[in-house]
């Protein structure tokens, strides 16, 4: 007989949902994890973080073989692209990890349920799949339903001529000209993939710089590097609509101040202007779960919603829409659910854009520090002066920048643009988590020659003692 009673029902099996389910099971709860996608891993694994990184890696290899191996004395006569094989590899990576997540759930005795969940009230969740309906009784409910692409008036996504990020991960041929709307995370990562594979790429951004929330100096170096790779930017420009004309997709642009309207033709348009919380069909209103003006579920510091014993985490609540943020919240929410204490340190959540050069940051940007009137010192070190970056022939355009609170001497922000920035930022995230000073980092022995030495040198620079620059 099917057992329908649980201690916790998690809705959504993305990085928020499946991590919460596993942690709850480890803490002794009887857990079900429901997802309507038919496979585990959520947006992140199926149409987000993982397939995009697989394509970034593959396209980087192609680009390197075509344009950069010769610098190392490695001569390759012809480099050809087999897009189908590249996409196939990406799908295989996703499939393998899907199985991995399901295996983890099983190993931890979490029941994985495929179907669409709807709240029926405190302690009751209805799950529908194509041929059955189950009503689950549970002591606690955790909503981890994630997010979906933000729509734009006048732009109809058909996943063929006009695509969302999901469509951009599976284009069956390299478009001659790709227009990307939005110079944020998705826009720049996908622009990089298709540019490396040979497309002409134009990125249209409404604001006056790319990655507008990022430290301005870093964003300016990133734009220069991407321009060198051939990506064109149209800043202070908004897209007011797209239309199909013969075989071309026409994108209508308007200058931000409304002064000028023009049209550009292309083969494919990618709409990437942000994501919004996904709560459709959950029945939040009927149950009384409050959402804010932008549709995010409101939670308290225990991740509990306006309804007792209904919790929410991840992209569906306010905060950065990042997989690791969802995972942190997952663990803390579940631990507090069973009476333990915990908190998420939102100042120490790193963010990474996987372009080349990679960009990574944690904590405050210089602009934020200036705005909030916090006095700070900055220490910077360029990869150009890092022996490992030089000997590897890695992109040397970037730097490590460490921002230190002048009063208390602790590191309050770090920004890295350059090779493997996403990995390097972990050291400074850890330093910030332990309230380290720049001198703590500077006096830590770093192996030579490594990219991490650029962090030590930036920390030395923040203490006015640079050695190698
Ligand atoms: P999700 O991963 O969105 O999972 C929610 C799940 O809930 C989905 O599977 C959905 O099917 C299911 N669901 C929704 N409603 C119901 C319902 N009623 N019943 C049953 N199931 C339901 N973040 C990073 O940190 N690093 C990256 O490199 C990165 N790259 C990205 C690339 C792209 C192209 C995209 C789109 C996003 C990327 N992100 C990245 C963001 C990351 O994917 C999200 O922050 C993360 O997936 C959020 O996790 P979540 O668990 O909150 O929700
Ligand atoms: P985003 O918020 O990163 O960037 C959207 C960009 O579009 C902004 O620069 C914004 O100013 C611009 N914009 C908004 N309206 C516009 C308009 N009408 N015309 C032109 N430009 C416009 O959103 P994106 O790229 O869609 O990604 C969504 C989220 O997914 C990210 O914020 C991030 O949280 C997550 N993500 C994370 C990744 C990572 O960690 N590496 C990779 C991909 C996505």
Descriptive report:
The chain is of the alpha/beta class and 469 residues long. It has 3 domains: 5-147 and 276-344, FAD/NAD(P)-binding domain (3-Layer(bba) Sandwich), CATH 3.50.50; 162-273, FAD/NAD(P)-binding domain (3-Layer(bba) Sandwich), CATH 3.50.50; 348-462, Enolase-like, domain 1 (2-Layer Sandwich), CATH 3.30.390.30. It is built from 14 helices and 22 strands. It has helices at 15-26, 42-47, 49-67, 83-107, 165-168, 185-196, 216-228, 284-287, 323-337, 366-371, 387-392, 421-433, 438-442, 453-462; strands spanning 5-11, 31-35, 111-114, 116-121, 124-129, 132-143, 147-149, 162-163, 177-181, 200-204, 232-234, 237-245, 248-255, 261-266, 268-271, 275-277, 310-312, 351-353, 358-363, 376-382, 399-405, 411-418. Strands 1, 2, 3, 4, 5, 6 and 17 form a 7-stranded mixed sheet that branches. It is globular and about 65 Å long. The N and C termini lie far apart (71 Å). The model has no long low-confidence stretch (mean pLDDT 96). The structure holds flavin-adenine dinucleotide and 1,4-dihydronicotinamide adenine dinucleotide.
